[in-house]
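Input.
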Amino acid sequence: MLELAFIRANPEIVKDAAKRKRVDIDIDALLALDADVLETRREIENLRYRQNQLSKEIQAAGKDQALREKAIADGKDIAAKLKETEPTLKMKEDRLRDLLLRVPNIPDATVPDGKDDTENVEVKRVGAPTVFDFTPKDHVALMQHLDMLDVERGVKVAGSRSYVLKNDAVRLELALFQLTLDTLMKKGFSPLTVPALAREFCFIGNSQFPRGREQVYKLAQEGEEESEPDLFLVGTAEVSITGMFSNEILDYKELPLKFAGLSPCFRKEAGTYGKDTRGILRVHQFTKVEQYVICENSHEESVKWHETLLANAEEVVQALELPYHVVVVCTGDLGDGQVKKYDIECWVPSENTYRETHSDSYFHDYQARRVNIRYRDAEGKVRFVHTLNNTALASPRILIPLLENHQQADGSIRIPKALQPYLGGQTAIVPRNG
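Output.
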């Protein structure tokens, strides 16, 4: 979240950021509540100071009964006022905290204005859209022909937007993850498998809560102890990694921390009824390798790592021999915490368009403030870290452009050279009876 002192000093900048990001929040109301909280705190401090004075007056009164009784009576009045005012302060502070969590981050000056993803701006294009000398199939037809997908039985098990990967699809998915992890490990990223269950504070820290809560599955915990924390299913390893370092002070010599987090992911896809229902593009369960970086509190450092994470993801896409382009995401399509974001969109022949397969974002100290991740710099000063994340690979979505772009006239799928070692040297996926 933004520092409250920054909001007080720069209300117009914050209002403009909210307007550009299409976030409905009343900054004037927040500042009025902030002033009220400060005044209530001062009132409580004055009452406690007076309470301490009265304690001394009672002791000093000695045998002066009248003076002693008056001090005792005044003390009771102050205690009553504190009993009334302290819960009021807690209520106001909770309301202020909730409003602060809803204030969006300030987008970078290089982020284009726009209302939604239709106004994202292409900044790079690699490879030409695939041209076929035969009538190509979409990914569903290809996977069914090759006995790689069973949507109907997936729906039987788990309802809409569910699926079962089969046979070579399973092997291909595992090969994709291994290729991605190997690529990142060579660049010094530490692989992690993280909990797919996380407590609420992790989602708040990640800036997915309070907005975005409707996209997240909450676990019912009937019969558990009341002290058990609420648990939710993550939609990215970023949530868990953010929580891992909460309330820690790191040493600047440890930074940057670079992780490749592998985890199952879950998303309700609320508000997408009837949209992208065919196949495996928009599903409730998937798996991702997420790049995650914790670095020093420096804009230049964040920008450097933002470009580096993008290059890493592009390296994976290029190894898969996929046509793609990179877009810079406009203000109306940015998440609350994001300062700037790139999307990689791969070419999907059956739709004659590019589809988002990777996202790359930096947050400055927005997430770190929410979960209190800090470091001690070279001068000994404690500062909030900066955080970044990037989708290195998400499956099954990546299978769509991979299979469609590499399909051949006989219905088989050519396996990109970089993947072949992970599939025992296999060069193509062919019908199981072929």
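The chain has a mean pLDDT of 93.
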